[in-house]
Amino acid sequence: MTLTTLAKSAFAGLIALGGLSAAAHADGMKDPKDVKISFVVHGSASDPYWSVVKRGVDDAAALTGAQIEYYNPQVFDVIEQARLLDAAIAAGPDGIAVSIADADAMRDGVEKALAAGIPVIVMDSGEGPGMEMGVNGYVGTVSEYDSGVKAGQRLAKEGTLKVVCINHEVGNVSLDERCQGLNDGLEPSGGGTEVVAVTPDPADIQRRTEAYLSAHPDVQAVFAMGAGAANPLIDLFHDKELFGTLGLYTFDISPEVLDSVIAGEMGFGMDAQQYLMGFLPALYLVEVAVNGIMPINSTYTGPLFVDTPEKAQAILTLAKQGIR
């Protein structure tokens, strides 16, 4: 695996500050190679979004030499994620990074970790609930709701008012907030959204979306709540020749999304830069274990609108490497 220039630069910066080196760690603190970190996320292994997060985690482990475990359910299941968090806590790590898609499901585990003196960083989703629980930091996009509002306002300016949200992780509060924000961004212009709940299975995404569109011919655009839904929708739009008739947009990006933007098909994808959601929490948690220091503010990674072929092309090479 080739480490990214970003990863190498970040590591070099920490070394320059006296962190993450065996010679520099404070008395009584750990050598980086003895540090154990656990990531506990809600995203399934098959979701292209989360494979980029995992790449960031792996790069951080390779750079620091720390022992980093990565836990995730096979399918979206917050109860299973809570069980995995309990298992991670029982192993006694030096730090935990966790996504919070459902605050009620994750609260007990997060508070248990904090009570045990384990630093916890929330990543990807759940900044607000996490801070209420007393976590040590957050790495991810700004408010999912606000991101949705910006997307809705943008569509409204383009005259696209009737939009359907395709939600492939029903029960994920972050995706609910995305669609609610989208709706509220459209509403002042007379627009709005409806939600089609689907499973992560590509065939199910295509089948349910096609059925909805057949029953609602006045819909102007389809908005995927993530790349896991966007990729099958791109195929559906090709198969049914919907590009040019309906708009297609998505939160998050993938190589397929970028190719579609380059081809002038999709309107835009919203880049969360999720590689950083895996990479930075790992570095922060290793740093606090080695030197007892950590940033005091949230670290925001996006979103960025990828809305032109030029922007998409600039990102595509990195996306195909699993970095964007």
TrEMBL record:
Transmembrane segments: none annotated. Residues 1-26 form the signal peptide. It is found in: Periplasm. It comes from the Bacteria. Keywords: Signal, Sugar transport, Transport. The keyword Transport applies. One of its GO terms (molecular function) is carbohydrate binding. Residues 37-289 form the Periplasmic binding protein domain. GO terms for cellular component: outer membrane-bounded periplasmic space. Gene3D superfamilies: 3.40.50.2300. Coiled coil: none annotated. Belongs to the bacterial solute-binding protein 2 family. This is Simple sugar transport system substrate-binding protein. It comes from Bauldia litoralis.
